[in-house]
Amino acid sequence: MLSKIITASLLGMDAEVITVETDLQPGLPAVHMVGLADTTIKEARERIRAAILNSGLEFPRRRITVNLSPAGRPKEGSHFDLPIAMGILMLERHAEPMIEKTAFLGELSLDGQVKPIRGALPLAMGLRQQGIRRLVLPENNLREVALLKDMRLYPVRTLAESLAYARGKKQKNWVTMQAENDCEVDSAREEFRDVAGQERVKRAALVAAAGNHGIFMIGSPGSGKTMIAKRIPSIMPEMSYEERLEVTRVYSAAGLLDDRCQVVRSRPFRAPHHSISKAAFIGGGRIPGPGELSLAHNGILFLDEFGEFDPALLETLRQPVEKGTITINRSWGSVSFPCRVMLVAASNPCRCGYYGDQNHLCTCSERELARYYSRFSGPLLDRFDLHIQVLPVPRSQITSGGKGEDSYSMRQKVAVAAEIQTDRYKDAGIRFNSRLTEKQTEAFCPMTEESRRFLQKAYETLGLSMRAYYKMIKVSRTIADLEQEPLIHTAHIAEALQYRQLEPFYRRMEYDRSRSIYK
Question: In whole angstroms, what is the distance from residue 363 CA to residue 367 CA?
Fold first, then answer.
């Protein structure tokens, strides 16, 4: 006797349709599993046996062989419990024809309860891509998967309910609702109103948020770099439906969703410590899972104390930040994770923190300075659209009580600029200026002849790379969008160039050690 049940296996962010083939033959009672199943799946035989018996059902006392097809790819996850159990129960029973186009996902407890699983949304998305639109799943995963508006979902709480569906009895109505249990994931909500002074840096943060540009801040300790970075999420534009779906998919695959948080509504804000390992940062494992880089997808990846990170780890950012995906290779194949992030970094100018500070003396030797600057490679710094020096706040601005612009007014400006970009790129497959290719930059970033000559002169004078040249155009386009200008003018180019003026920190300049200032 043979039965076939459809399920799926998660590899990275992609799901592959798996057919659970169950065969019953005479012989000593035993359950054999083949098809590159991991330990979690092989242990399922004991959970399944107890779940079937405790549900008042009969477990066959013969030789059972379970094959997970295709057999050449590794498989892991407790969500195979329910389809394997259904395969065993359907060996000697007649199944409704509709079960052939229905997938099953769920972990079983020993009493027959169907427990929630990790990665329900990406698994459902993979099934949908293969034309399978009916899904039996744990009730606690319902709101997460209900983001897929065109899927027909059948939530179950017990193995008996799943069997009743397969037999065509006691069927509930299919669920096609949209998820309501939204949540915020690691999103900082501090106010820019609390930042005294630093209006120039706040303006740079506004431009970065409006166009999703990466920003690198460098300055003395206590100047407000971290404080400003943590407030950028408060002015970011709202995520679209597609972006919420992508972010929730990543968090589902990472197992970070639960009953309190089943749909991610706000843009993620991830701030890993500089001692993080490479696997935790970019993703890894025997069957790789997403790391901090992917958990910040469609949000902000904040690297505080940028100079303290392992240089080899930082260099891994160069290609993923530009492509928007990170690929991890294994002997059996490769998996890819999305990582379209707004990269925000903050660093001291040296080990002691006071290189270039007019109020403090730098105590670093020339060798220590050279060693510290060797951590900032030119190609990596070139990935940041905006570079800005954060100077200490003057005492007059602290005591005056003026707090400057707040997050609400800044968020309104960002929303207007984001809407302009959404309308402009609705047929281009992107949403923000920072994602423009070189060809798209020429097409979507018209400028006056005067501003073009000004930019070319700056390119020659400052010795910018071609990447930096196009980044200047993209940043200028964002500044023009904030002012609702259709053309890029010289003033927009000039402001964008101000956000590249960190040459004293990138090139050796004559430095007066006795006064601790630049000549």
Answer: 12
Q: Which residue has the tokens 């612009």?
A: 405
Q: Do 78 and 40 form a contact (C-beta atoms < 8 A)?
A: yes
Q: How is domain 2-166 classified at the CATH fold level?
A: Ribosomal Protein S5; domain 2 (3.30.230)
Round the CA-based radius of gyration of the chain to a whole number and report it: 28
Residue 67 in 3-state DSSP?
Answer: strand
Residue 250 pLDDT class (50, 70, 90 cuts): very high
Strand partners, 23: 2, 65
> 324-348, pLDDT tens digit by residue?
999 998 877 888 999 999 999 999 9
pLDDT at position 503, please? 52
Neighbours of 140 (CB within 10 A): 19
Residue with tokens 């059948």: 154
CATH code that applies to domain 192-431: 3.40.50.300
DSSP state of 515: T
Cα 468 versus chain centre, distance: 25
Residues 6+ apart with CB under 8 A from 426: none
CB 276 within 8 Å of CB 302 = no
Q: Beta strand 215-219 with 14-25: parallel, antiparallel or unpaired? A: unpaired
SS3 of 211-229: the string is HCCCEEEEECCCCCHHHHH
**Containing H/E element for 311?**
helix 311-315
Q: Are 208 and 471 in contact (CB under 8 A)?
A: no
Tell me the residue length of the chain: 519
Nearest to 344 by CA among 290, 289, 268: 268
Going from the C-alpha of 195 to that of each of 226, 306, 314, the distances in angstroms are: 11, 22, 29
In the chain, the N- to C-terminal Cα span, in Å, equals: 87
Q: At what angle do helices 44-54 and 81-89 cross, to 10 degrees?
A: 60
Please name the amino acid found at residue 52.
I
Would you kindly state where each structural domain of the chain is located, as residue ranges?
A: 2-166, 192-431
Structure tokens at 296: 């910040």
Per-residue confidence (pLDDT) for residue 238, from 0 to 100: 93
Q: How far apart are CA 434 and CA 211, in angstroms?
A: 6
The whole model's pTM is what? 0.88
- Confirm if 329 and 287 have CB atoms less than 8 A apart: no
Amino acid (one-letter) located at 68: L
Compute the CA torsion angle 306, 312, 316, 318 (nearest 10 deg). 60
Cβ(13)–Cβ(335) below 8 Å: yes
What is the token pair recorded at 462?
Answer: 């400052």
Q: Say which residue the tokens 């998967």 belong to.
A: 145
